[in-house]
Amino acid sequence: MAGLLNIGIQALNVNQAALDITGQNIANVNTVGYSRQGVELTSRAVPELGVSLENINRVADRFATKQLWADTATASSSEIFVAKANELDNLLADNNTGISTALDEFFGALQAGVDDPASVPNRQVVLSETQALVRRFQDLDHQFESQNITISDQVNALANQVTALSAQVANLNEKIAFSVAREEPANELKDQREEVVRQLSEIIGVSVQSSGEDDDINLFVGNGQPLVIGNNASTVSVLNGDPDPDKMRVMVNVAGRAIEVGGDINTGQIGGLLNYRDEVLVPSWDELGRLAISFAESMNEQHLKGVDLEGTMGVNLFGDLKQSGTVAAFSGNATQTSVNPSVLIQDTSLLKASDYTLQFTDTNDFIIIRESDGEQFKLGTDIAFDAANPSPMQPNTYWADFANGDVRVNIDGMTISLNGQVEFQQGDKFLIQPVRSGAELLELAISDGKQLAFSSPVRATVDVDNSGSIVVETVAITEPGNATFTTTAGQLNPPVDIVFNNTVPATFDVLDISDPNNPVPYTLNSTVPATELTGQAYTSGEAIQLNGFSVTLKNVPTPGDRFTFEYNTDGVGDNQNALALSDLQEANTTDGASYQDIYGRLVESVGTRASVAQITAAADKTVLGNSTAVRDSVSGVNLDEEAANIIKFQQAYQAAAQLITTSRLLFDTLLNASR
Amino acid sequence: MRISTQQLFNRSVAQMQNQQTLLANTQAQISSGKRLLVPSDDPIAAAQILKLDRELARFEKFDDNIDVATRRLQLEETVLDQADIASDRMKELTIQAGSATLTDQDRGFIAEELRQLQGFLGGLMNTKDSQGEYLFAGGKAKTQPFADIGAGNFAYQGDDGQRFIQVGAALQIASNDSGRAVFDVIPDDIDVTVLGQDRSLVSNVTVLDPDTDDFQDFSDTFGDVRVVVSKASDTVGDYRYSVLDSAGNAVTGTSPAVLLQDISFDSADATIDTVAFGGIQLDLSDLSAINDTALTLDKLAGSPDTTITSGETITNAATMKAFFEANGDVRLDFSKPADTFTVTRISDGADVTPGGVPIDFSTGTITFAGIQLTDVSIADTDSLDLRVESEVTLRADEDTHSLLQTAQNLINVLETPITDATSREIFNQTLATTLDELNLAKDANLKARTAVGARVNTLENSASVNADFKLFTQATLSRIEDVDLAQAISEFQLQEVTLQAAQATFARVQNLSLFNFLQ
Questions:
Q1: Left, alpha or beta for A413 (phi > 0: left; psi -120 to 50: alpha)?
Q2: Which label site among A228, A350, B336, B427 has the fewest CB atoms less than 10 Å from its CB?
Q3: For residue range B103-116, what is the model confidence (pLDDT) as tens digits?
Q4: Distance between CA atoms of residues A671 and A85, nearest Å
Q5: What is the DSSP string of B390-421?
């Protein structure tokens, strides 16, 4: 009887406990990270008989949880990537922020200049549209910059969170170890720990090392840098870029030493942000910069070839961006004495939208890596030595005085100059950013519409008594800085006559008519030695090169036919240079493409990146959904199940109570019998 | 599979959210009418749209340009019409003025009307466009093209510039014509221009008969001609001249009727040394009055001078002139291995070596008589002939004028009383010339109007071609970026139904709970 009572009491207790656990499960049905619990009961053998509560189990699948963490990291990375990419995507294609519409408007206004170059209001319109275009470039650059700053701020905040969460994991590791040592259940602590790791996984991809539920969870980031080992947590911080100021670095501080891990973090929000920055933002930024530089430089080049409303030779339309690139030494370089390293853009048509790294592989050898595609330029094979060290340098040549750290190298339309003063050491590295600041630094260099150089500096006059069919087809200014244009403002020095002779086939003399009454043979200075252009063979449609300009005559001359080329004084109605400027809209100025083609490519590439990222993000989300489902299906609370459990345990409890009643009845029966 | 309660919620909510996103997207497409809301919807199409938008913007601009060009050309056409009418009236007046019955006073009245007409014509030729720029000034839009330069003379002040305007993807149309091409078309009498440093080498250059085209034809055949004069010998006044065409060949004269190559003339005798060729004549002078810097040093053809690599420089022009004035052409005879040379006069073979002894040239540089020849390397028996000469270039020069000048000339004659046969003759000649010139002007006017008309036609064609292109581009653009409303709306409805179903089933599923039965 005492046994029965005992069994009944045990059963009451056990089922009471089971009901408590059910209650705990129901209470935590909405608790994030909660794993349902169950009771583990054991029957007692004779002689005691009865039941005992062996353990309160936490229903969890370590591997499902681990999978959940990994998938969380991937999904949160692609989610934040998409968010950022969409931002940029909208920005570039929007008519109010994109460059393409502004270019349309600029070239549209330029047509007004073509229609009527002498009209000051029209010129003012062109100037305003140019200013608007410049502002658009700057605004877009500013948007890029602010997105980058936002990313830096975000990463910084996230790094702080990582530090805090890592500390929590370490702390929980310690507590769980305690509980385990005291053989107390630590289910809630374990749930918390797993949830913290999950939160951590959202921020930064971690690799987890843990041999069992009761053991420590050790976390590593990047390339195996320890974040949490047992009850020790590292801190994560963000440092300024080295040397690229636009690329802050994520560091893990292990035992007082900061190790850069940014490049190896690919998942989690930090990974997503860094990937976005490196794969989308910076390349697009560079492309925008390149577009700005190539636009400004090609426009300038043409603008210099014209004359303005006042009749003076054109000046730069935009501020000179040839030297807007930067060269920066890495802080770890052995040689830190470099004086004014520089990059000079020489040929915008060859320019690439990329950063470059110049790295010394030896004291007298270096390679240059183009970051956009990883292309390597090696001395000797890709870049030839040019002992003459000319200025400007020829494409794909270099000159170096290694002993004095003096290096000049030309690739991709730019010349990089380093002047270390002492010998560079193996491993010395330089970051070259030729185009990054292009859009930021783009600015209008003239302030008055009258300064727009719409006319050609050369006026061609056909002698009225020419009797041949020959006509002037084009006059092209090849070198506006030539002495022909610069010696005396407002004059051609010298003015030129082209006179045809009665030879067969036709020849012509080019005459210097500085003194119109005493024409003397004209000297072409660009040849070595300089040549007097007399008795030159005539080919219809072939350009005749003169000093600083060339003329193309067409059709058949008769002897004595004459053309005069002089300064275009008062030629305010001439629109030749305006036409040439407007032709640049369709010209293949950069990389075999026009300005707007380049911009279109940028929009397309960002759009593609965004579109791919959207698909990836959707896939990652589905995967995460699945692994969440797997985890929830194991560990999540099902209210129906718990309801059934309530019934089950309640019935058992009632039965146990009945046992006690029965025991009492038995006892009473016995007492009554002996009465 | 076991499903946790939260899972059930989460899954249903996620699905409803998905449906809502799709619905919102479709709704945005329908309300904007665009299939592509952001480039990532279809990156390739997005790039294409940029390109097509750009095309459209260009075509819009071409249309504007066509308007501008048409406006200018129509203005030009109107002005040309008016000018033609004015020139017709001028012709009537000219014919009327020819009547023998008119008195000086009558002619004065005609002159008065002509003056009015001239003013009217001048106004037309100096027409400004709506921007206040001269229509017929070429590129010099702010310079009055036909200005009275004094004494009743009119000259064209503009240039040949034409303003080309882009009216199609590959079509540029000139939106104006220069006054020179349209009005300034009446040739003046042909004249000769003498060019060169010392033009006093020739004098009295005249076109023999301005009414023939002799000189014009000559000039069109031979180009600019050069008259070259050099001293022939040590005899005082013994000079030579050649007349060379632009290819360097001697031309044949009409007086003397020989090939004009190294013809002697004596400047010392009293006769005037006159030469005539190609419809012009001129008098020759000797070199004595010529500025010594105008002289050129020639290595004569046939001399083995191929070994002088750096050419020759004149170090002292005065010395050179004096030496060659005294001797005429000279020959340098070289002697090796002595590395010396002597100078002899070609006309009589006399040794005229300066200083009287052979000159050393072992350094490779010859210096004598103000001349320096550098980098000379010569074999033993070589010689070199040198000549010093002066030359001028003669160029046919024919200017043009406009009807303003023609009218002025006529007015001048009309206002001059006819007193005798000579003045009557001048009067008649002027009338004849005027009629000729009026015809020339009319031809040019007609030609210009035809050209302008053709251009206006081209503009109209371009406008319609551009309109077609625009339509085509817009159609393409629409196909790429516009949403198919029927499809979008049916999609929308489908998504709506799906969402509603999801919501309905969610509520139902949530109602299924065992706790409902635990009462």
A1: left
A2: B336
A3: 888 888 999 999 99
A4: 86
A5: EEEEEEEE--EE-HHHHHHHHHHHHTS---SH
A507-512 and B359-360 as β-strands: parallel, antiparallel, unpaired?
unpaired
Interface list for B 66-125 with A (CB within 8 A): 68-69
Q: What CA–CA distance (Å, rounded) separates A494 from A496?
A: 6
User: pTM for the full model?
Assistant: 0.86
Query: Token digits for A466?
Result: 């020419």
Question: DSSP class of residue A45?
Answer: P
How far lies A434's CA from each of A290, A342, A559, B121, in Å?
A: 8, 9, 54, 62
Q: Which H or E run contains B452?
A: helix B421-481
Say how far apart CA A359 and CA A379 lie, in whole Å.
12
Angstrom distance (rounded) from CA A464 to CA A561: 9
- Measure the CA dihedral A461/A462/A463/A467, to 10°: 180
The one-letter amino acid code at B291 reads: N
The enclosing H or E element of A191 equals: helix A187-203
Residue type for position B445: N
| Residue A561: its H or E element | none
Examine the predicted complex and report whether its ipTM is higher than 0.90.
no
CA distance A321 to A351: 13
A519 preceded by a cis bond (ω within 30 of 0): no
**Cβ contact B45:B480 at 8 Å:** yes
**Residue where the block lists tokens 């630094």:** A441
Residue by residue, DSSP assigns B2-18 as ---HHHHHHHHHHHHHH
Look-up: residue for tokens 């010396």?
Answer: B340
CA A511 – CA A509 distance, rounded (Å): 6
Q: Are A187 and A56 in contact (CB under 8 A)?
A: yes
- Interface size, chain A vs chain B, as Cβ–Cβ contacts under 8 Å: 245
Tell whether A597 lies on the interface with B, counting CB pairs under 8 A. Answer: yes
From B161, B172, B396, residue closest to A573, measured CB to CB: B161
Contacting residues of A for B53, CB less than 8 Å apart: 100-101, 104
Peptide bond into A529 cis (omega under 30): yes
Range with the poorest average pLDDT among A174-183, B253-262, B467-476:
B253-262
Partner-chain residue, chosen from B5, B42, B165, that has the shortest CB–CB distance to A114: B165
Chain segment B412-425, per-residue pLDDT in tens? 888 888 888 888 88
